[in-house]
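Example record

One chain of 458 residues, shown exactly as stored in the release files.
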Amino acid sequence: MAQVQHRYLGVYDRPLLRDWTFWWTVAWAALFEMSAIFPAEGVEQTAPTWVNALYYWLLGALIPGFITALLRRGVRALRSRRADSRAVSSTSGFASPGQSSWPGSTPVPTSSWPVESPGVEAPSPREPSRPVQRQAFQSSRTPASAVPPGTTSETPTQMSSFSGSGPRESEQLRRAREHSPFPVASLARAMQTDSDPLEQHRLLLDLGEALSACLGVVSTSWLAAEDPESSALSELADAFFARGVSQGHWHQITISAAKAMALGDSEVAIPGFIESLGKSDSKSAIGSLRMLLQERNLSAHGGRPTTRGEAAARLAEGLPLIENALRKTSFLESVPWLLVRDVKFESRRGTFRADLGRAMNDHPDFEAAQMTNVEPLEEGKFYYSTGSRMVEMSPLVVYKYCAKCHRPEMLFADRVDPRKGVSLKSVLRGHQWFDGELAVDMAALLRPPGGERAPEFA
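Predicted structure tokens for this chain:
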């Protein structure tokens, strides 16, 4: 227990009015004072009343009050010394640079646990290591001693310091910043610009969730346009109209869309979708995203890293997973997300000229673009282009003014509340609010639980 450094008279805590021993002292002093001013009948006082009052006040404040505060200070000092001795004795429980503190985990190379790097503080002896119940990632790394001379491991290079150099030097993250949909690109940028492993670990999990949501939105929009009677849409509706969608729901709808594309007409399939997402094994994009989901669940239930060293080690294991997922889903670069800003009809040609915002990099002000389309597009809505057609993504993704950010933001639909409407979440800030106007659009897009159409919203 930490000792209180700022005291009155060496025993009373600050602020004084919140210290119970101070009021204990005042109460006893007042009791003794009253007994001196109003003595019992038959008691003869040999000194003046004001002298007796002062004497009794000092006696009451000293014996029951001040001495009690002194005893509390001694008890605190004793407990603090015992805590210090336990902390010093527990320092032997820290994992060595070449070992992992997780039960059943594979040894981590010394270079990936840089507790002796210059400018980096080692864990304080007052912070005993907290046991983790299970391993966050199923590491496939090979210890340096097990690699034969002249050969190299197939696994990516691990981080060598707390500086977060791994994400900053990642070519896959850099490419994602320049060519991926805005939710993915913005979080990839945040990972590369931040240098704190603890924050980078959080951003890694957010990036995995954003990529899962982007794949799920593209898949859901395609199924709603090409296979509206799909059972996968009904299952997704169950989640939307109940507790809300999770990453697992997005993964499942993505797999269902890949199967539907493989069985349907190849002309309406999204280019590269089947080749990239047709499998769901551990080496696929969905497999990597599921492993990141396991890490997010572990962190959400009290298993998040608490030190820079632990965060750096877990980040080194998670970085190859997100890089693999980004690599396997690179087809999204050729499926641009477009925000329709303005549409004008060209009567001579019978076409529509649209002013667009191309949301395919990490800049929040989308790149201006124009296109001519034979079909009308609705202003203020998001579409993605497959090269041959435009597919609407609203109300799964919308662009609306956020009262908390005080600017328009890209928002994802999270769930549907029967009274409040559609719950929307900001991509960058995580702000959440409801929009009742989108509830009708969501009801038209998805089937509610039970197979019936969703009720009308006011």
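Notes: The chain has twelve helices and eleven strands.
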